[in-house]
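can u pls check wat happens w/ adenosine-5'-triphosphate
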Amino acid sequence: MPLLRTDEVSVSFGGRRALDKVSLSVEAGRVTGLIGPNGAGKSTLFDVVSGLRRPRTGRVLLDGHDITGEGPARRARRGLSRTFQHLELFGRLTVRDNLLVAAELGPGRRRAARSADRTLDRLGLTDLADASADALPTGAARLVEVARALVQEPKVLLLDEPAAGQDAEETGRFAGLLRSLAAEGTAVLLVEHDMSLVMTVCDEVHVLDLGAVVASGPPDRVRRDATVLAAYLGEE
Ligand SMILES: Nc1ncnc2c1ncn2[C@@H]1O[C@H](COP(=O)(O)OP(=O)(O)OP(=O)(O)O)[C@@H](O)[C@H]1O
């Protein structure tokens, strides 16, 4: 059984359909990519999965439970964490305090301090623990955003363009982190425009175009799919 499943999720803004019966699965221990051109509906799908937006129709299932009616905090306690495309750090707090605030919302809130320190260490952020979040360069701020999601010890981790603003070395290290999370059993859903990262790190890729899934499969196959080339890769 997939850990996370969307079942025919549709969302409209005014008369315009942003998601059209999107059904996809995310498995434990795998990195699943979600790609598509600008405006395809990727962030909207993240909003539906994380509980920030109610779908017009369709369901979201986590570990077999229908969570469609639950709010973001309840979903976080169930083990679902996300990052945002536009960084949502508390700028005036230190890096460590950003993690502590997030840890309080997750299932591991009783061990928040320990989790924060371990996560900082894992992401190579220990030296920046006392820095103010708004003083960080973009690459480091992206990592803190990821750290804030990870400190909640998620079963499912939703990452919205985590490599934007990272340099090649940071992206390489980040790829290693994603693989090690998958090896530990975490289900990772990755929205990312860096195609070489997606193709290297993902076990499976879903392609959204105009709110609908137009292709799904292993990266090699998706890369050669004519619909994908037309909808997305041809755009670059
Ligand atoms: N709050 C909103 N109100 C109205 N329309 C919206 C809103 N949010 C998103 N949309 C529209 O829904 C569609 C999907 O947008 P979404 O941001 O989910 O796409 P995306 O695939 O994440 O794009 P990008 O890669 O540029 O981040 C777009 O046409 C967008 O203009």
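The beta strands are 4-13, 16-26, 31-35, 57-62, 65-66, 80-82, 156-160, 187-191, 204-209, 212-217.
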